[in-house]
Amino acid sequence: SSNAMWGGRFAAGPDAIMEAINASIGFDRRLAKQDIEGSRAHAAMLAAQGIITDSDATAIREGLLTVLSEIEGGTFPWRVELEDIHMNVEARLKEIVGEPAGRLHTGRSRNDQVAVDFRLWVRDQCDAVDGALVALMTSLIGQAEDGADWVMPGFTHLQVAQPVTWGHHMMAYVEMFARDRARFADARKRMNESPLGAAALAGTSFPLDRHATATALGFDRPMANSLDAVAARDFALEFLGAASICAMHLSRLAEELVIWSSAQFRFVTMSDRWSTGSSIMPQKRNPDAAELLRSKIGRIFGANVALMTVMKGLPLTYSKDMQEDKEPTFDAADHLMLGLAAMAGMIADMKARPNDLRVAAAMGFSTATDLADWLVRELGLPFRDAHHITGSLVAMAETKGCDLPELSLADMQSVHAGITNAVFDVLGVDNSVRSRTSYGGTAPENVRAQIARWKKDLS
Ligand code: ARG
To answer: What pLDDT score does 286 carry?
Structure first.
């Protein structure tokens, strides 16, 4: 049989495969709450403008609440042949309230309807992600507070570079996740305009009050161009862009946790709650949550590319291609939220191993730069010469199989006669980090100041 919505024009119903490729109800039912919110705002506005009667609007608005409670209660009769969330809700509304249901779609199209639903959904996600980011930042700050002055190796090229503090390393991620928050907030601000009332694409001859529906739905204003309103999906792409960058940050931290929890590093012990054992190797404690997090990030990047690809080259305005905007966005949002929660939990529960960190911090001639700086400061050498002298001392220590502080004063003086015993003060890792007091440097006093700043910012 032909479709109830456009049966006037159609004699035959769709092929079964057409129905399968066309239907979005399998996934866009997640927009139910937003769809009903949008419809309720639209109905109230139609009545306020005298386009439908107050009693029809009341019937529609109350009927929609019944529909919502059926959906939330799991009793809603979903029907694939009704394609999508919009038609499922409207058809059920008709069963519940009868004739007034047919007036709801006045001055509206599924094109502006889906645009408003999806915008509301993505906007909610921005808020949810923001909360999850705050929780993760709070976990990181907790770690930083515990170990503001624990010394650990800082790396470049994953080769030992200079000693840094555990707190400084944790706070580096706090900075990254704070920028992620700002990106989501910025995207949210820009997406917070209402497409409702753009109708199919051209606007409508009904005297709609688009400002009223925009306000009712928490938007800052209606979108100014009806063609843009139904065609735009850059709001979802901005969400996915911000999600991708945030996911990239998560994957870097996840990778560090995997490395740090290995027997070769022993920087941290991951809690049992985020680890698994092996069915054959009894000693095993695998950082599975971190590994899964590292890899799930791919789905988020994939979603970004998928939606970019859906949208590229689409002529204005709406094309059915755009129905493919939802699944990748839902999947990315779900996995980002899961990843943020898992990371917050892992970070809160992990135990750093300050002694192992400290031992590792001294390996690999990590204070060579301190030695070179000392030669500049105390002996007035040009930095390039100091670099060369220090390089010779590192080579000497390497040949002797010892660390820099284990060279004797005589060894040192054989390379440069001006070196004195005072040099040994700067070769210790604690002195090294304590000396890095430049703004943004790793000195524990700096780290504590940053912790205080961020705690204030987040409270
Ligand atoms: N299910 C559709 C989507 O997700 C709703 C909009 C349909 N509009 C249309 N003209 N077919 O994009």
So the answer is: 87
Checking ipTM against 0.90, whether it exceeds it is yes
Out of 115-124, 140-149, 166-175, 283-292, least confident range: 283-292
Exactly one of 1, 157, 205, 459 is catalytic; which is it? Answer: 157
Is pLDDT above 80 for 42?
yes
Find the mean pLDDT for residues 94-107. 98
Catalytic residue status for 271: no
Ligand 1 atom 4: residue of nearest CA: 323
Annotated catalytic residue 278: yes
Residue 283's pLDDT is: 84
Q: What tens digit of pLDDT does each residue of 192-246 get?
A: 999 999 999 999 999 999 999 999 999 999 999 999 999 999 999 999 999 999 9
Ligand 1 neighbours, Cβ below 6 Å, are: 24, 28, 84, 110-111, 114, 318, 320, 322-323
Q: Give the count of beta carbons closer than 10 Å to the beta carbon of residue 15.
A: 10
